């Protein structure tokens, strides 16, 4: 039997193999066909790039579709990172397709005259223009000051348009889809993609709608945060591992996809009650304090693999959090206390000021129940502060990490610069990167 770690490793290998197969299979099947008329290497090569790019773009929906089976072995951070990076590869592949064609066969430049061009060219240009807008608006979303929810909506619409027009272009060109079996293959790809879209946009929200939650209470926390307690309304609720997160919908219907991700900030409760702790940062998080008990809420989850339950064999854990990044740590620490786990734990919490330390008292209350060393690092410490000050760095880590630091599992969550600095420092201290687990609150 596999251990949990080995099982996730083999699942990861499986999904990577499926990904490679699905992006390259059409190429092999379509190009190794002796019945095709020769059109020259560069022309066929450019078409190959176009096919690969299109297949990759279809698979982007699998990556962002919150399919926990696919994401589990990698974790959301890695999957979203891959989504962003691979979209650049797909973009350049698709762009290279016409560029190579224009250079190798200059007469094809005439296809850019859309007034007279055949429909296959019009579809191709439409797909490419939308793709360019999509890539630019994603890359420079913040610089262009695009509001997140609006950007997310149009990002999805444009992704569908790029693939739709790309497929129309491919069918109209017809060269590599000239036989029934090839048409079946691409129709299969298209049908798989449409079914996924239907599942993500219609079936999943419908399932979410059927399992509503109700707000039990909203309480203020230190650090401009609010704790929201929810209980399932007429269903058994969800089972999650401490450290995971869920997508929360308030005020809206789940069909509008206006949900926001939040980590569970308490351990699993037998009553099914859940807690999220949300820092006031923007449009949505600023509304939490107005929520009234009894309000309906919807959840899509659990998601993520940032959890001690993935590494049950560890001889001890280190939790390093900055600001509101403490929420998943709180969930894991509370669970360890409920389980009467006595393995050594170190928690380092970075905050600007003492008054802003979310869960300060709750964490201190857990100390006697756990074998826990809790250390605060303050950017602006008060007078007579005896704890650490400044930012968490290699010196601070070295001071508190035990001798068996290589054997421990590390969980890091906080502002990106803090996470990057801590990751680097841990690697320098000889911790293996496989032992460092991160949850980034900025997916996009
Ligand atoms: C896995 C995960 C767990 C999280 N857990 C917590 C938590 O426990 N407590 C907490 O306070 N915050 C948490 N966050 C962050 C929280 O989701 C964002 O702060 C919140 O969605 C911002 O929404 P807003 O409308 O208030 O802010 P806005 O002002 O609209 O946006 C600020 C920034 O937040 C991000 N953002 C906005 N909306 C979304 C969205 N729907 N999905 C993803 N990112 C978005 C964007 O990068 C945006 O630029 C978590 C994020 C992730 C990815």
Structure commentary:
It contains eleven helices and twelve strands. It is α/β, with parallel strands linked by helices and 444 residues long. The longest helix has 30 residues, at 180-209. Helix content is 45%, strand content 16%. Helix 1 packs antiparallel against helix 2, helix 2 runs antiparallel to helix 4 and helix 4 crosses helix 5. The chain has helices at 4-31, 41-64, 68-71, 76-104, 119-139, 148-173, 180-209, 326-338, 360-366, 394-400, 416-428; strands at 213-221, 225-232, 245-250, 260-263, 274-279, 296-303, 317-322, 345-351, 372-378, 388-389, 409-413, 436-439. The strands form two sheets. Strands 4-3-6-1-2-5 form a six-stranded antiparallel beta sheet. A six-stranded parallel beta sheet has the order 10-9-8-7-11-12, with helices on both faces. The protein has three domains: 4-207; 213-303, Elongation Factor Tu (Ef-tu), domain 3; 314-439, Nucleotide-binding domain of ferredoxin-NADP reductase (FNR) module (Rossmann fold, 3-Layer(aba) Sandwich), CATH 3.40.50. The radius of gyration is 25 Å and the shape is elongated. The protein binds flavin-adenine dinucleotide. Residues 76, 148, 245, 260-263, 265, 277-279, 281-285, 304, 324, 327, 439, 441-444 line the site of flavin-adenine dinucleotide (FAD).
Keywords:
Elongation Factor Tu (Ef-tu), domain 3, Rossmann fold, 3 domains, 12 strands, 444 residues, alpha/beta, binds flavin-adenine dinucleotide, 11 helices
């Amino acid at each position: 039997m596999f251990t949990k770690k080995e099982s996730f490793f083999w699942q990861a290998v499986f999904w990577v193999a499926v990904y490679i197969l699905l992006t390259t299979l059409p190429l092999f099947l379509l190009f190794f066909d002796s019945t095709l008329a020769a059109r020259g290497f560069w022309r066929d090569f450019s078409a190959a790039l176009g096919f690969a790019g299109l297949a990759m773009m279809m698979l982007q929906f699998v990556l962002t579709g919150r399919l926990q089976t696919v994401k589990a072995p990698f974790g959301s951070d890695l999957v979203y990172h891959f989504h962003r990076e691979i979209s650049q590869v797909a973009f350049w592949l698709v762009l290279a397709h016409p560029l190579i064609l224009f250079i190798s066969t200059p007469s094809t430049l005439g296809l850019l005259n859309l007034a007279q061009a055949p429909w296959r060219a019009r579809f191709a240009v439409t797909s490419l223009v939308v793709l360019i807008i999509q890539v630019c608006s994603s890359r420079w979303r913040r610089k262009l000051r695009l509001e997140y929810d609006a950007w997310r909506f149009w990002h999805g619409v444009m992704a569908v348009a790029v693939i739709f027009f790309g497929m129309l272009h491919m069918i109209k060109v017809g060269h590599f889809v000239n036989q029934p079996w090839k048409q079946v293959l691409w129709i299969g790809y298209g049908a798989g993609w449409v079914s996924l879209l239907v599942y993500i946009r219609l079936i999943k929200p419908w399932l979410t709608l059927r399992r509503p939650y109700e707000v039990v209470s909203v309480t203020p926390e230190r650090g401009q945060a609010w704790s929201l307690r929810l209980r399932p309304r007429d269903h058994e609720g969800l089972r999650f591992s401490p450290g995971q997160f869920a997508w929360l919908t308030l005020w809206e219907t789940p069909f509008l996809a206006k949900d926001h991700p939040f980590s569970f900030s308490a351990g699993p409760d037998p009553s099914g009650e859940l807690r999220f702790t949300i820092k006031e940062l923007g449009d949505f998080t600023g509304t939490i304090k107005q929520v009234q008990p009894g309000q309906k809420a919807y959840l899509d989850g659990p998601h993520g693999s940032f959890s001690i339950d993935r590494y049950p064999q560890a001889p001890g854990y280190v939790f390093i959090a900055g600001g509101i990044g403490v929420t998943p740590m709180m969930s894991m620490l509370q669970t360890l206390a409920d389980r009467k786990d006595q393995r050594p734990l170190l928690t380092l919490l970075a905050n600007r000021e003492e008054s802003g330390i979310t869960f300060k008292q709750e964490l201190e209350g857990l100390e006697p129940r756990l074998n826990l060393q809790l250390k605060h690092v303050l950017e602006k410490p008060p007078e007579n502060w005896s704890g650490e000050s400044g930012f968490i760095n290699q010196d601070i880590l070295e001071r508190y990490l035990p001798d068996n630091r290589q054997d421990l599992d590390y969980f890091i969550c906080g502002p990106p610069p803090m996470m990057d600095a801590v990751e680097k420092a841990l690697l320098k201290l000889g911790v293996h990167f496989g032992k460092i687990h991160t949850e980034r609150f900025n997916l996009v």
